[in-house]
Amino acid sequence: MLPVCPCVACGEPLPVAAGATVVACGSCGTSLHGRPAARRLVDPDWAALPPKATGRYADDTPEAIVVPDAMVPFRVERATARRLLREAARRRWFAPRAFRRVDESESFRAAYLPHWVWGAWTRSRYRAARGDFYWSRAGRAGARGSRVRGVRWRPAAGSVDLVFADVAIPATVRVEARMLADLMRDWTLGDAVPFDASLLEGCWVQRYDLEPEVGLELAKARMAAGIEREVRSRVGGDAQHVPVIETAFSGLGYRLVLLPVWLASYPHRGGRRMVAVHGETGRVVCGRPWSGPKLGAAFAFAAAVASVILYSVL
């Protein structure tokens, strides 16, 4: 039997085929990411981690999955979230009518989005080259030529010790990556409390789509980018060439944290688009929908005004 999860737009059951990457809701037509096939990474750091407790708590799966370690409670109540959403929507004059009434959408719901939060100590050894710019004249001796920039390279090597805490990796693919990244800017992981199933009442609790070992791969990539930035800073110069960075991890650990958000959707061009209200700060996160008729009317009005002005001048 195929797993079933609700459509994030209309809430209707959405079958997800094994290995599917994109599926479409049969009720509203919204295109959604499917749950990727589970895969195990050959990673000694992952193999050394102890297993976590499992249980049944998510709305979209009956199976036992990793139980969250912590959650960030809602600070923005339902009525406040609706008001903030209504105010933000009505400030957008050129938005379609459906967007300006999104606070009345039946899809409006409180949701907890799963995130893998990683931490580690790293020691990285690097071999690199530092480049310093210099300028010289091109052309024959004694003749005035254009200035040409060159680079003097010299070897550099060393080690970097860094501590990474709270590297949060979204574990859902059913919310747009751009929206998740925008929401992440305001979440305060320091305000997380131990997981309490009673706080989930009345909320849509989503199962994680990305397995923790996949989250480790993404977290290591995020850490690697931070390590490379630190290496380049230490190498210095005008340019750096860093062919080798060898990193060892220690004290590696992770938590599954549920983060709060209010979600709603509205019809747009034959599909549905999502809007979010941050569960801690109340900041509204959405795209920039435009109404074709409103834009056309504004363009026609501007063209008419320009024509009148031009006629009066001539």
Automatic annotation (TrEMBL):
It comes from the Bacteria. This is Zinc ribbon domain-containing protein. It comes from Glycomyces terrestris. The lineage of its organism: Bacteria, Bacillati, Actinomycetota, Actinomycetes, Glycomycetales.
